[in-house]
């Protein structure tokens, strides 16, 4: 069975992430979305909330699982018996750092990294930009699944007294 891991923070998942996960799911028998637990950086959503949203929006793919990991990504890949990492590339600015990581990961554990060019519809999209827009009341409907838009609304706009 050919398994790939799509790693990231997913705070929260955007349509750009989903496009990469969906395309990967058509290339591999199983795709594991790995949500990084970063103790030094607390996100807008807890890891459990991110996982729940990811599970909901990837349920229709049928061969996508969601799990969290801490520590080395290659150790997570080994534990999941996955030999490939899939990374989305939005622009050349993503490339320098991703290349370093890919070269480190193949050296550490023989885990290959495949880069997938972003769908141009989403090349400007990042979780942080979506959070910024939502924070100031902008409409993020075209950029995230509805469940994420609703969660952003609930989290960022305090209810009236
Ligand atoms: P972000 O930069 O949005 O916080 P993550 O750390 O969660 O993203 O990224 C996880 C993976 O998803 C990375 O490989 C990243 O390049 C990819 N990714 C993020 N946003 C997009 C997008 N808009 N299009 C394609 N890939 C993306």
Automatic annotation (TrEMBL):
Residues 5-131 form the Cytidyltransferase-like domain. Its main location: cytoplasm. ATP binds at residues 9-10, 17, 88-90, 98, 122-128. GO terms for biological process: coenzyme A biosynthetic process. GO terms for molecular function: ATP binding; pantetheine-phosphate adenylyltransferase activity. It is found in: Cytoplasm. It holds the Pfam family CTP_transf_like. The record marks 17 as: Transition state stabilizer. The keyword Calcium does not apply. Keywords: ATP-binding, Coenzyme A biosynthesis, Cytoplasm, Magnesium, Nucleotide-binding, Nucleotidyltransferase, Transferase. It is an enzyme of class 2 (transferase). Pathway: Cofactor biosynthesis; coenzyme A biosynthesis; CoA from (R)-pantothenate: step 4/5. The keyword Transferase applies. It catalyses: (R)-4'-phosphopantetheine + ATP + H(+) = 3'-dephospho-CoA + diphosphate. One of its GO terms (cellular component) is cytoplasm. InterPro entries: Cyt_trans-like (IPR004821), PPAT (IPR001980), Rossmann-like_a/b/a_fold (IPR014729). Its cofactor is Mg(2+). Its EC number is 2.7.7.3. Reversibly transfers an adenylyl group from ATP to 4'-phosphopantetheine, yielding dephospho-CoA (dPCoA) and pyrophosphate. Belongs to the bacterial CoaD family. This is Phosphopantetheine adenylyltransferase. The gene is coaD.
């Amino acid at each position: 069975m050919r398994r790939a891991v799509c790693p990231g923070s997913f705070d929260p998942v955007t349509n750009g992430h989903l496009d990469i996960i969906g395309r990967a799911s058509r290339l591999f028998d199983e795709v594991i979305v790995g949500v990084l637990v970063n103790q030094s950086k607390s996100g807008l959503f807890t890891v459990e909330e991110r996982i729940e949203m990811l599970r909901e929006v990837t349920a229709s793919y049928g061969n996508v699982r969601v799990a969290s990991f801490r520590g080395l990504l290659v150790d997570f890949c080994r534990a999941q018996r996955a030999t490939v990492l899939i990374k989305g590339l939005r622009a050349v600015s993503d490339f320098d750092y991703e290349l370093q990581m890919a070269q480190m990961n193949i050296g550490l554990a023989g885990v290959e990294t495949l880069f997938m060019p972003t769908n141009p519809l989403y090349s400007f999209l990042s979780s942080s930009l979506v959070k910024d827009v939502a924070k100031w009341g902008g409409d993020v409907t075209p950029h995230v699944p509805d469940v994420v838009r609703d969660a952003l609304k609930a989290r960022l706009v305090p209810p009236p007294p």
